[in-house]
Amino acid sequence: MVTDRTAPARGRLDGLRVVVTGAARGIGAAIAEACHREGARLALMDRDIDLCRRQAAEIGAVAVEVELSDPGSTRAATEEAVSSLGGVDVLVNNAGILRMAPLLEITVDDWNATFDINVRAMLLTMQVASTAMIEQGTGGSIVNMASMGGKVGSPHQAHYAASKAAVIGLTRVAAMELGEHDIRVNCICPGYVLTEMGAASRTPEMVAAWSALSPLGRCAAPDDVAAMVVFLASDDAAYCTGEAMNVTGGMVMH
Q1: Which of 89, 91, 85, 81 is nearest to 28 (CA)?
Q2: Choosing from 53, 61, 160, 252, which is the catalytic residue?
Q3: What is the pLDDT along the chain (254 residues), one digit of tens a residue?
Q4: Does the pTM of the predicted model rise above 0.70?
Q5: 160 counts as catalytic
Q6: So what's the architecture of 17-193+222-244 in CATH?
Q7: Which residues lie below 8 Å from residue 109, measured CB to CB, with a gap of 6+?
Q8: Domain ranges, ordered by start, for the chain
Q9: How many angstroms separate the CA atoms of 196 and 223, rounded?
């Protein structure tokens, strides 16, 4: 059963200041909405600032424009998001890109663009947010978006899989270094998630084939991923750090 948006919220994030990247649509929008339902105050970061503003207006959040391929923009936007909330308790690094290409046809530009957004931008937002968390002295939680591709890979996704494996490694080292400040760092490894972004090229046959890989017989909805973010951001996960949590319906079990 997919997460029920009508179910009563438990207030697990009451008053927490949450920054979400890539929050204008898809999984990011579902994360923002789930955090809002649990009582969080939010700053949403996205390059599509018009859509981001509309999403932010629906949940009383702050919208911040960012170009994650640009280190200067990434740092400045993260600082603006943190400042707009008066600090930060939770950082959710959701933004990422996927450019499909066979191994022998991946260009240097494809490789660099993938790592710039999927890994380097994540490092920069973590540096800004964790510095603020340390100065606050109240700890915090960082949730990074990896992928089951970072564990098992997939044809035509070598650069994407490598970047998501890097996210897992980055997450684990950050957990080791930031734990002394009571900052937990975890990542999520979703499987196939049905969002509007891939709807144009997605066929019923493709969905059926993907669903057959899961013992649960279905693909993930954005709310499935958002529920894991809420768990990792909340005190329910107070003793979880350095984890790469699967949200794959059993497609990956390690």
Answers
A1: 91
A2: 160
A3: 455 655 667 899 999 999 999 999 999 999 999 999 999 999 999 999 999 999 999 999 999 999 999 999 999 999 999 999 999 999 999 999 999 999 999 999 999 999 999 999 999 999 999 999 999 999 999 999 999 999 999 999 999 999 999 999 999 999 999 999 999 999 999 999 998 766 777 899 999 999 999 999 999 999 999 999 999 999 999 999 999 999 999 999 99
A4: yes
A5: yes
A6: 3-Layer(aba) Sandwich (3.40)
A7: none
A8: 17-193+222-244
A9: 13
